[in-house]
Design goal:
The longest helix has 21 residues. This protein is 31% helix and 23% strand. By secondary structure, it is α+β, with helices and mostly antiparallel strands. It comes from Candidatus Eisenbergiella merdipullorum. This is Six-hairpin glycosidase.
Length: 665
Amino acid sequence: MKKITYRKATGENRTFLAQWDEQGRLISLQNSQDTYGMNWVKGEQIWGTVFCAPDLTVEVEHRFTERGTLAESYTFRNDTAFDIYTVGTQLGICVQFPDYYTDAAVCMTQCCNTHLWCGGGSSYICALRMGGGRINLGLVLTKGSLKGYSVQRNLEKQSNDRGAFLLHPEDLHVRPGESVQMEWELFWFTDREDFRRKALSYSGFIWIEAEHFLLFDGEAVQFRAFVGERDGNGDGENGNGLNEMNDEICQQRPVIYRNGEKIGFSWKNGVADIADRPVKCGEYRYEIEWMGKRSHALFLVQPESRRLAERRCQFIMEKQQCRDEKSCLNGAYLIYDREERSQYYSHAFSDHNGGRERVGMGVLLAEYLQEHPDRKLEESLDEYVRFVRRELLDEENGIVYNDVQRNDELKRLYNYPWVCVLFLEMFRLKKDRWFLQAAYRVMEAYYREGGSRFYAIAIPMRESVEIFRENGMEEEAARLLLHYREHGDRIAKLGKNYPAHEVKYEQSIVAPAAIYLCELYHLTGEEKYARAAREQLAVLELFQGLQPDYHMYEVAIRHWDGYWFGKRACYGDTFPHYWSALTGIAFRTAEGIPGCEVYAGRAEEALRGTLSMFFADGSASCACVYPIAVNGRPGGYYDPWANDQDWGLYFYLKYIQREKGLEQK
């Protein structure tokens, strides 16, 4: 970069309280009506910092607009005698939001969940305060085009700081003496619908909606592209939340491509309706050109869900089960390295060991076999269960160990409900009451170890009580319900004051809280649990993405899993990650609770959102690191390790496919 100049905004604005440093850089941005005084640009990087490898001169300007927004423009000028091209991540503009995790009370009022869409000319950021509320910050690109974003993190903060975002313009070609400009506007909005309405008030903006962005073979790709165009005053709207268009504009049509090939569509009143039937599985990129701007949507077509599960189960049996009678790992389902084409295990790094989240592989097989008997798969599962009983469980007192040889150097309460789920699914498969008794002992041990103070993942509260009652274990059901009530009452009392877990605050703390309160309402019918569940669901949904991309649509924000469970050990946004499915479970479990009707319709898409982690040959990936780069390391990949992702497929089969099967019967 040759030189950079920053110019702060002049004049006054009723709602933006802005502060600038001596160089003219934005260092604080507040809403004048916000009683919490949240700074929406707080972080370790400074908002608007430009990273420019080529020898360009950069000017950054700010201005308050008549519409009450804050406009920022970035001008890149070539003052050299030679053409300048930019490629990759050579050019980036920092946008720093307070998207970090600390004490929950701070997160609720001072931090935000940041949803980014670098969708060409129709790019945006939808930043939602973590604790909810009607003051949120939006950004819409008004000039230029964005191709993606990178992340710059302070690695010393490990999982608790998402980092700063670097927005990358499309590759530029700037001739000598010429300049290129990027511009966007910042505005306040009240909720997602208000954000959509305001985004569509910008000329040429494209907003894309679909029921499903991840589809199964045989399903049609169907979506709508809404286009925005201001009227004379910038505030006229029709019933779709679109600004009124004059007849001349309405007669124009966008151009739409599927994987580079032009396709047909219907067009009426500024809305394009697309219905397309792909001929095979794979990724489909639909690009929309309108008024000189170009945006896109990304869909994935997967094999039918049971076919996907069949291939995955076969792969686990053939590639991921240890068969070494001289090893304590004999029978275990282990990590599989798709690059090395070999299994992997490490006791030194717990997330790579023989227990913990990898129990999900056994759970998946047990669920699949209930509807699709297969002798070889069942033999593999039996061998795995023998491994669990031998190496990971004290059958007498229900203790679940962290690794083989009943090793408990690290005590971890998360492990208990996962083994309980395995045993419940094994009971459904085998009808052997030993599994019910063992599941009960495991949950007794969990609560004996202090589980009511911990937001463990996937405790089968409602399921365990109902299955025990159905099988004559009334005393055990009553005992567990007492534990569950104590647990739920504590969650309800704490409300948004979430206790820190392995990460200080995250989606998979809020999601279990919401699920358990919903399940307790269904078990007891008591309004106090419904009331507490509604509070949790309102916070939980703020993690959910709304971008028109199967990686992010209805996928919860998570940004550390690729480091702990992946071969690449890389931090950064993991879109998708399988624990995002917990939100889908919460939405599904909310069905039937008064005041929660809005969530049920979103459940299936949230559960589908994790299924791109499974591949046609049955292999899988533990995380997709979505950004272009993280601290300079390449991103945009599915990690080579098949590790712990099978919970996502299990949840889809259980909460969607199983229910559909029951409806058909």
